[in-house]
Amino acid sequence: MNRPTFSDAHLAARAWFLERSVAAGFEARVDAAGNHSAVLPSRFAEAPTLLLGSHLDTVPNGGRFDGALGVVAALEVLRTTQDGHVDLPYTLEAIDFTDEEGTLVGLLGSRALAGALTPDVLRAPRGGHDALLHGLARAGLTATRLADARRDPRTIAGYLELHIEQGPVLENEHVDIGIVSTIVGSRSFNLTFKGTAGHAGTTPMDARRDAGLAAATFVVGVHETVLRDFPNCVATVGRVTFEPGAFNVIAGEAQVALEFRSADPSRLDALEDALVFRAREAETLGHTVEVEPVGRWEPVPLDTTVRTAIAHVAEALGLSTAELASGAGHDAQALAQITPSGMIFVPSVDGVSHQPGEQTAWDDCLNGANILLGTTLELAEVFAG
Ligand code: HGY
Ligand code: MN
Ligand code: MN
Prior knowledge:
Elements (H helix, E strand, L loop, with lengths): L7 H16 L3 E4 L5 E5 L8 E6 L13 H16 L7 E6 L11 H6 L5 H5 L5 H10 L17 E9 L4 H4 L4 E7 L1 E10 L3 E2 L11 H19 L4 E10 L5 E2 L2 E10 L2 H16 L7 E10 L2 E2 L2 H13 L4 E6 L5 H4 L5 E6 L15 H22 L2
Helix pairs in contact: 2-11, 7-8, 9-11
One manganese (II) ion binds next to loops.
């Protein structure tokens, strides 16, 4: 799957979702942040909305289940509820959030809805400011109006998200359903190492300020530092670019995309200090190093009432469960700031995700969708008061 935010494939998938929503008789909505929704109104006026959703955008060359499973299952819950003439004390809304993956910003649509999209988030987004403006324009959106997508939290009863685990825990422990306890926080930085471009043939090895070497040394340093000093944390360099990028020119500049994660806010601070320190070691070799923060998501615990409801429903369906933290980020971590939120995980084959080999058995997808439906029904009494 290659549906980066606002790519043709992404826009086509969103159009498909709206077509299927309208075909099922639901009201289709698109808000100022481009979040796409199908709405099944409650017959009770002033009823709050229970949001069910995930995202249709993918990472480059991603998998078929990350995000899409949650959006399609949410739509199916609305269709099943409508077909069953179930009278719920809340409006149901299946929602596809904009740019969850951070091709442009990260949790863009869900943070806009939660009222957390501050100007500094948009000033230096990890996909680049020009790419953000261009992408928004492709979707008929504008940066100045994104914040209009904010919802009054009093109108929202809660948020549920079905998602693949994207890791090996459920499969290794032969557990059907994961109940997410917390979602990790993450921070992203663009690092620029500046040396001196030069002739690859005539510049002696001991007379170089090779930005490529500085960047590569840093990448090794990231791995060493986190392995040695930060158990249960992760750090990734997913992209390095050398400028000018020719066989016969010593790199004068290197760009490094760094991201690190932890479930513990204090460890995120310590990780930031340690990894920036490693980057700045290049200055002792005569390089200049620029460190630009381009993304930040806080760790968040998920709602205990929702977690209990998921466990009840799974037990009633005879499905085994385990509580686990999510090492992946999700829209639920934005929604959890304003409303009781919960996540249902289903197993990922071999724990593989963010690549074409991403796979979840259909029976597990079915289990997840049934838990999503059951939890929607179970929470009716709880959330609607
Ligand atoms: O990057 C993540 O953890 C998620 O897939 N957006
Ligand atoms: Mn996802
Ligand atoms: Mn993802």
